[in-house]
Structure formats: C-alpha cells, structure tokens
Amino acid sequence: MAHSDLKFRKAAEWINIYDGVISYPTEAVYGFGCHPESEAALAHILEIKQRPWQKGMLLVASTTEQIIPYIATSGLGQLQRLLEPRDYPVTWLFPVDSYVSPLLRGAHKKVAVRLSTHPTVQALCEHANSAIVSTSANRAGQLPLTQAHQVRAQFRLDLDQVISGNVGGFAKPSAIIDAETNQIIRAY
C-alpha cells in the first residue's frame, strides 16, 4: 500500500469512526474538515475557529452522489449545476435537507456545496465515501493558512491529522452562487 493511500485511509478513519477533525489543502487554502453528520466534530471546528455557528460551513465532495444526502428534494433538479465547467472553483447553494445540523448549515435554509477538482480533496472524499466539511484553516477574522507547517504550528493540539500537500493555486476562495436563483453571493 502506498504511503499516500495510508494517510487518506487514516484520515477517513478519523472522520468516519472517531468524530475527528483534520486539515487538508484545497483549491486556494488549507481547510478544516470532518464528517458532515458528526455534531461533536462540527462543534470542535467552530470552537477551533472561534466562529459563530450561524455562519455555517460548506461541504466538498468528489461526486454528486456524496452531496445528495444533504440537499432537500426540491434542490435535486439543480444538481447538474455542480458539473458546469468553470475556470475557477464554485461553491453552490442548494436547499438543505431538514435533518442537516444547524452547526453545518448555520442559520441558513441552504447548504453550500462544491465538487472539488483538488486531488487531495477528491481522495479524502473517496476514502471517506462521503462529502466532508470544508472551512478555511484559521481563526475567525484572521487570514486563512496555505501551508501544512503553518497549520501544524498554530493548531496541532486541536487537530487529529494534518495532510501535507499543495493548495490548488487559486488566489481567492471559491465563488458562491445560488443554484436556484443564479444570484452571485461572492464573485471570484
């Protein structure tokens, strides 16, 4: 078994079995992540970030199938929006399924989701067989971190695993677009 495969299997165990919180590279920054249905891990991320729950967090996935459990039936017709090709990462807002924790969706009626093209994010989601939470690795109000050594230096006691790797080379966080209304919430 390759070393990289082992680190993704270990991360999947932290996420799926132990309610763990990990950090990993995304398209533009390092992120904190956990299983979307782990109340303990969601609360821990909010505590680490010192972020109010009302803001919510987003989900990343490697397939649309990993997103379906979190989207309300009324939003399933817009899933093809996730597959629209773009030159930059896009996070889409979909109506949220009623069972999704407020710690994930915040005070919103929609959930933010992104199909990631980043190989580390894809590998994490495939090994976990699930979408995973993604929120920038930083305390609220501070700049997001972009390197594993920065995450370890600041958060090593708060995290179960930090996956080393390069961020995807995008200078800014993803655009955010409402899948139902096409309203641009955050431009790229």
Give an overview of the whole structure:
The chain is an alpha/beta fold and 188 residues long. It is built from five helices and nine strands, in the order H-E-E-H-E-E-H-E-H-E-H-E-E-E. It has a nine-stranded mixed beta sheet. The chain has a single domain (3-186), classed as Alpha-Beta Complex (DHBP synthase), CATH 3.90.870.
* SSE succession: HEEHEEHEHEHEEE
Fourth-tier CATH superfamily name: DHBP synthase
Note poorly predicted spans. Answer: none
What's the level 1 CATH class? Alpha Beta
* Binned strand content: 15-25%
| Structural class by helix and strand composition | alpha/beta
Q: Give me the CATH architecture, please.
A: Alpha-Beta Complex
- Mean pLDDT equals 94
How far is it from the N-terminal to the C-terminal residue, by CA? 39 Å
Question: Considering DSSP H and I runs of 4 or more, what fraction of the residues is helical?
Answer: 25-40%
Whole-number total of structural domains: 1
Largest sheet: 9 strands, mixed
Count every beta strand, where a strand is a DSSP E run of 2 or more residues. 9
- CATH fold-level assignment: DHBP synthase
If strands are numbered along the chain, what order do they take across the biggest sheet? 7-1-2-6-3-5-4-8-9
Net shape = globular
Radius of gyration, in angstroms, nearest whole number? 15 Å
Individual helix count = 5
